[in-house]
């Protein structure tokens, strides 16, 4: 068995357990019922904002659920179709992150990193009823950075369109390309392309809201602040944020930031653009909102754990 297949198998083994827990083992009847309600509301365009506009997963899976309902109980069909989706999404997250890390780190260190992510993912997958888009976001960001590194703008455009249908944060893919271009003299002449992709993503975000109609906010900004500023909310947020990186991962990341490969270091600016959205509009204890930062956080942790492991000579841009 080749090294690639071994890694894919390890990722599949970890993803199977995570998907089983997230979709079946640790899901009570209330959560199952809420997931069905959320799914149906998005498919029928009756959900509150911003969920109404996160159409990718519900619209793709709904025909599969209806087809499966012809041969099994509808509740079982819903659970099993989503369980399969969670398995594939989690597997893709780990595999893409491994491929990304292998640009700069040896196979052993990259494998350690994805297993660390797999160990801490249960923290990210807590405290919400239904958020399938969150399982795709880190894969879209990691895949987008791989494309940016290869100067593959056509593929980046296609990925951005799909990612924007998944969640509004799809606009950060072309933003990451712009950040890279601004810091890479060789790429400055290519900047109009990611700027054009960003314009398309913004038009899509606005267009979805116009096409699907206005909706009241599921959690108004005032309510978000009340949750985040409450004693319980703050304590939960601190605990979850610490556990998101395995507690000791944060000091390792702080030590490793200055050793980051140049390509990854540039994306700290993208993270700086993303974090205010989490701090203002996010509920802080829902640390799944931080998962798109894996391509920056995980390399920093590796650089802190293994100071001499990163290959800083790896080219920042490869031919498409």
Q: Can you give a write-up of this model?
A:
This protein is mainly alpha-helical. The chain has one domain (3-305). It is 70% helix and 0% strand. The chain has 15 helices and no strands. Helix 4 (74-101) runs parallel beside helix 6 (133-149) and helix 7 (153-166) runs parallel beside helix 9. The chain is globular, with a radius of gyration of 20 Å. The mean pLDDT is 93.
What is this structure's SSE topology?
Elements: H1 3-25, H2 29-43, H3 56-68, H4 74-101, H5 107-124, H6 133-149, H7 153-166, H8 172-183, H9 192-212, H10 221-229, H11 231-244, H12 249-256, H13 262-266, H14 268-281, H15 294-305
- Average pLDDT confidence is 93
**Low-confidence parts, pLDDT < 50 over ≥5 residues?**
none
Which sequence of SSEs, written as H and E, runs from N to C? HHHHHHHHHHHHHHH
Largest sheet: none
Assembly state of the chains shown: single chain
The total number of structural domains is 1
| Derived structural class | mainly alpha
Report the span from N to C terminus: 29 Å
| Dominant shape | globular
Number of discrete helical segments: 15
Share of residues in strands: under 5%
The helix content, as a percent range, equals 55-70%
Let me know the number of strands.
Answer: 0
